[in-house]
Design a protein that fits this description.
Strand content of chain A: under 5%
Number of helices of chain B: 8
Oligomer: heterodimer
Strand content of chain B: under 5%
Radius of gyration of chain B: 17 Å
Number of strands of chain B: 0
Largest sheet of chain B: none
Helix content of chain B: over 70%
Chain lengths: 454, 202
């Protein structure tokens, strides 16, 4: 048995099968959760490249799969990432029971997780850029469901993700060429600029960020949040791989200057915009922009490190998982609010907190968590980032804090709007029991994760 | 067989087809231009690649064109009318686009020699053709948000990139993956054209 069969082909095949029977929504969601959890569990327990006795049978999970002269490698060093991918995908499937994001959600989610795993496994790893594009193409049916008018955000998302791929592939070739000349002294600015453009396009860095706020107001909140989670996570993990494959890149100042500049611009501008938003969906979009900015800063903080991958991954993995958790709860809450009020604009959701309190509290706490509010899930990773930045680039800390304060201000504004109705309004709970349980468990998980990681 | 003598005619073909794609107001002619464009790409990728490998570009490109054709036909006349959205400002819009095409065609010869210096295997016609396609594809994206035009623009840009990238990367897996990306893009384009008319599934 090969690791690529298990973590790439099985979810891909399951996605194909579940597409055929997608009308049986309960079954597809249950199957999706079971497959995701099973694969996460297997990633946790499986010994790679060792013989396992299963009764009379003997099995060995080999880490390398070769095809057409290229290799797909998934070994024990990818264990944590595999757990992250498949555990978080199960969480998203679980949330889809409440939010009804469409029949295609589970098949597309499974296919995306398979493609995400492929980006980790493929060698040469630069080919991952093509898989990121393929993942983006898989996500389009979720963003543009049948019978609905096509939004501009979807077109822009497709455009930017497609344009990013050639830049990454081409910069990879230029870096490869530079590395054959034994390193950075031969490296000119051209590949850095080309790589920079690729990252700007794929990670929705300013000025290519417009699809995020557009999608967050056009698409189903749960689908938008899922896309905001899956694509930037994929690109961040790819980015870590990029730097760890070319050790001499870690001493190339121009790249880290770019990462710091892009990251701090995203955090700062995202925070300022968030403070003035009047739409709960768009607020989520700007929170995502800030979070992407923080992951860029985190990667940048590995500047000069001899082992960037092992130094950054222990912070990046919790950051991505907490992002997934907070976004999932936020999106569930927004989906419920949108269903009950018909809108996510401040005008439409005014006083919704008294009418749908569980959803309103869930949305606000998830927002605060992404803003790095103490005791919540986002806080420990923000703290770790700030500590790293204090060592490497203390000047940026102020910009990050301004961005986080901006996002917190946006959260406080939504808190006021959601709960600022007449005090005589009776508090009701029109959410279903499942919604109440999920939201309560989710908000508790935000606190628990925050305290555990601290 | 030495395919180098065909490089210049292929470049001319690509210049004509990519300009036609941008200027055409008839979606049928546009898709025919896109199909012809893939023939030009095939000829230029023949220089670094074997016929078999280069044929993947031609075949996947033509399948992509067929998928787009089917998509727009299925979508019906309502949507095909919106393909002509750029005609609202006729004739000034068309003159503007012609001038923009001319501008790209004038800029490319100044950049192409620098690009061809990146690799000794990259000939001037290849660099020129790649840049023309990338430039005109970007122009296409800047002019419209119609899904068919956007996808045609993206396919044009990818074709331009693939001409240049074929010189530096001759892996069969990459050729296959890029073909898959092209096909995926065409299927997505066809889906986006049809999606507002499709039955709501909940």
């Amino acid at each position: 048995m090969n690791s690529s069969y298990i973590w790439i082909l099985i979810p891909l095949a399951a996605a194909g099968l579940l597409t055929i029977i997608r009308k049986y929504e309960r079954f597809t969601i249950t199957a999706g959760i079971a497959i995701g959890m099973g694969l996460a569990l297997l990633a946790w327990l499986a010994p790679f490249n060792q013989i396992i006795d299963i009764g009379p049978l003997q099995m060995r999970i080999s880490s390398t799969f070769s095809i057409l002269g290229r290799r797909f490698v998934l070994g024990s060093e990818d264990r944590q990432l595999l757990i992250l991918i498949f555990a978080s995908i199960s969480l998203w499937f679980l949330g889809s029971i409440l939010t009804k994001p469409g029949h295609m959600f589970v098949p597309v989610g499974l296919a995306s997780s398979a493609v995400m795993t492929t980006t980790l496994a493929v060698e040469p790893f630069l080919y991952a850029a093509i898989f990121i594009l393929i993942a983006a193409l898989f996500l389009i049916p979720l963003l543009a469901p049948p019978g609905r008018p096509l939004g501009r955000g979807t077109i822009r998302f497709l455009t930017f993700q497609t344009l990013g791929m050639p830049f990454i592939l081409f910069s990879g070739w230029l870096f490869e060429r530079a590395s054959t000349f034994s390193g950075a002294q031969f490296l000119t600015l051209t590949p850095v600029v080309i790589l920079g453009f690729g990252i700007l396009l794929l990670l929705a860095v300013f000025p290519f960020h417009t699809w995020i706020p557009m999608l967050s107001s056009e698409a189903h909140p749960y689908v938008a949040a899922f896309v905001f989670y899956i694509i930037p996570s994929m690109v961040s993990l790819f980015g870590i791989d990029f730097f760890s494959r070319y050790p001499w890149l870690q001493n190339t100042d121009s790249i880290f200057t770019f990462l710091f500049a892009a990251g701090s611009i995203m955090v700062l501008t995202g925070g300022i915009w968030a403070a003035f938003q009047t739409h709960l969906g768009r607020l989520m979009g700007f929170a995502v922009l800030i979070d992407i900015g923080t992951s860029l800063l985190l990667i940048g903080s590995g500047s000069g490190s001899p082992d960037l991958r092992n130094e950054i991954l222990p912070i990046l993995i919790p950051l991505l998982f907490m992002r997934g958790l907070a976004l999932c709860i936020w999106a569930i809450a927004l989906s419920i609010i949108r269903t009950k009020t018909g809108s996510l604009s401040f005008l439409g959701v005014s006083d919704a907190g008294r009418k749908i309190p569980f959803a309103a509290v869930g949305a606000v706490l998830a927002h605060f968590s992404l803003a790095g509010f103490p005791l919540l899930a986002g806080f420990p990773t923000r703290l770790a980032l700030l500590e790293r930045l204090a060592d490497v680039q203390p000047g940026i800390i102020l910009l990050v804090l301004i961005g986080m304060i901006g996002l917190l201000a946006g959260g406080l504004r939504s808190l006021v709007v959601l709960f600022a109705g007449s005090i005589e309004t009776n508090i009701q709970t029109p959410e279903t029991r499942a919604e109440r349980i999920f939201l309560a468990a989710g908000t508790l998980a935000l606190f628990a994760a925050g305290l555990y990681l601290l | 067989m030495d395919f180098r003598p065909f490089a210049f005619p292929a470049l001319v073909l690509l210049m004509l087809t990519s300009a036609a794609l941008l200027l055409s107001q008839n979606w049928r002619w546009s898709i025919i231009a896109l199909a012809a464009q893939y023939f030009g790409v095939f000829v230029l990728t023949l220089l670094p690649w074997s016929v078999g490998m280069a044929a993947t570009k031609l075949i996947s490109g033509w399948i992509a064109c067929s998928v787009l054709w089917i998509g727009i036909t299925e979508a019906g006349t309502v949507r095909t009318e919106s393909w002509k959205e750029l005609d609202r400002s006729w004739p000034s819009g068309r003159i503007f686009r012609m001038l923009a095409v001319l501008l790209v065609m004038l800029i490319v010869p100044t950049i192409a020699p620098h690009v061809s210096e990146l690799s000794p295997a990259l000939s001037l016609p290849q660099a020129w053709a790649g840049l023309v396609l990338i430039g005109l594809g970007l122009l296409q994206l800047g002019f419209t948000a119609h899904p068919l035009r956007v996808v045609a623009g993206l396919l044009t840009i990818l074709s331009g990139f693939e001409i240049i990238y074929a010189v530096v990367e001759s892996s069969l897996l990459v050729a296959g993956l890029l073909s898959m990306a092209n096909l995926g893009l065409a299927i997505t384009g066809a889906y986006l054209i049809m999606v507002p008319m499709m039955e709501e599934t909940g």
